[in-house]
Amino acid sequence: MSSLWAGTRVRLRGVEPEDWQVFQGFAEHSGDMRAVDRVYPPRSARWFRESTTSRSTQVGENLDLAIESRETGHLVGGLSTSGVDRRAGRFSYGIGIGHQHQRRGYAADAVGLLLRYMFGEQRFHKCEVKVYEFNEASLALHRSLGFTEEGRLRSHEFFGGKHWDAYLLGMTLPEFLDRWDLPEV
Questions:
Q1: Model confidence over 114-145: pLDDT tens digits?
Q2: Could you say which of 49, 54, 87, 95 has the lowest number of CB atoms within 10 Å?
Q3: Of 151, 181, 147, nearest in space to 166 by CA
Q4: Which parts of the sequence belong to the N-acetyltransferase domain (predicted)?
């Protein structure tokens, strides 16, 4: 049996303190940071170490994962869950791929691995994502993966001197099973 955390193009692993320099390099591309979350001021190794340590103490609720290229072994991005609601059976996630690593299928492979784990191992029923209107690549990715647009929050986020809409997209377990298989046992 192969690893649940290894796909065709990527391997997911825990975020390590020494990853901070690569993530800081990703943060230097402001457009990518806006697409993922928002532009933050430069951060130190100490801040990174403390923030990853505090989130890792909430085991089972939020995942913070590094995305590595299987071909090169290089860190190419990050993936984290949020909004985990075990009672309702839903979760959200955010993904970011470093600018120099985009358009190589890394995001699609990483999301597929995450969905297999969350639906097949953690018993979730629904995944939700929020994508800003200017992030056409992410909208196209999520639609191609089978996510359905469920709503639009008008003038929801402020970036670059303007308010932008946010699209809400979702996928249920039956919709996932229409496209993918659950992990083998």
A1: 999 999 999 999 999 999 999 999 999 999 99
A2: 87
A3: 151
A4: 10-174
Q: Is residue 184 in a domain?
A: no
Strand spans (E) along 15-147 = 64-69, 75-85, 90-97, 126-132
Q: What residues does 131 pair with on adjacent strands?
A: 167
Phi, psi of 175 (to 5 degrees): -65, -40
On the question of pLDDT at 60 being above 60, the answer is no
User: Looking at the domain assignment, is residue 4 inside a domain?
Assistant: no
Q: Would 77 be classed as within a structural domain? A: yes
Six token digits for residue 121: 């191992």
DSSP label at 148? Answer: E
Mean pLDDT along residues 151-174: 94
Residue 80 lies in domain: 10-179
Give the confidence band of 1 by pLDDT, cuts at 50, 70, 90: very low
Tell me how many domains the chain contains: 1
CATH number, residue 68:
3.40.630.30
3-state class (DSSP) for residue 40: coil
Q: Are 149 and 168 in contact (CB under 8 A)?
A: yes
Q: Is residue 3 part of a domain?
A: no
Alpha helices in 8-105 (DSSP H): 20-27, 30-36, 45-56
Please report the pLDDT score of residue 120 as a whole number: 95
